[in-house]
Design goal:
Helices cover 49% and strands 0% of the residues. The protein is mostly helical. It holds the Pfam family SecG. Belongs to the SecG family. Residues 83-102 are annotated as: Disordered.
Length: 132
């Protein structure tokens, strides 16, 4: 049903674009003016009314098909939260127990990487150069 409505919607869109492009410009906002000669395509006033009515009908059909597509799309998806499919974070490495928090895992890694030699002593105050 939705694919049929999409095809109808696209046909209406193409027809609407074509009918709008066929209409003669009356404003001259872009400086084109539409020309004053009688040799133009569809220059009669009655034909302009037909194009205006056709545009209005196609625009109404465009809105109706847009609303129909929106309603069909809303019925196909179940309401839910974006958090329904979310996991608790990154997956744990294969060697880590599942109950460990990230902080505990970090402490374990720091203990494994700790050097076995004692750290150098920190000086208690500023070093004074010897004046010899």
């Amino acid at each position: 049903m939705q694919s049929v409505l999409i095809v109808v919607h696209l046909v209406i869109v193409l027809a609407l674009v074509g009918v709008v492009l066929l209409q003669r410009s009356e404003g001259g906002g872009l400086g084109m003016g539409g020309g004053g000669s009688g040799a133009g395509f569809m220059t009669g006033r009655g034909q302009a009314n037909v194009l205006t009515r056709t545009t209005a009908i196609l625009a109404a059909l465009f809105f109706l098909t847009s609303l129909g597509l929106t309603i069909l799309a809303g019925r196909q998806t179940a309401p839910g939260s974006i958090f329904d499919g979310a996991t608790g974070g990154a997956t744990a490495p294969s060697g880590a127990p599942s109950g460990d928090s990230g902080f505990q895992r970090l402490q374990q890694l720091q203990q494994l990487e700790a050097p076995s030699a004692p750290a150098p002593a920190v000086p208690s105050g500023p070093q004074v150069p010897n004046a010899e």
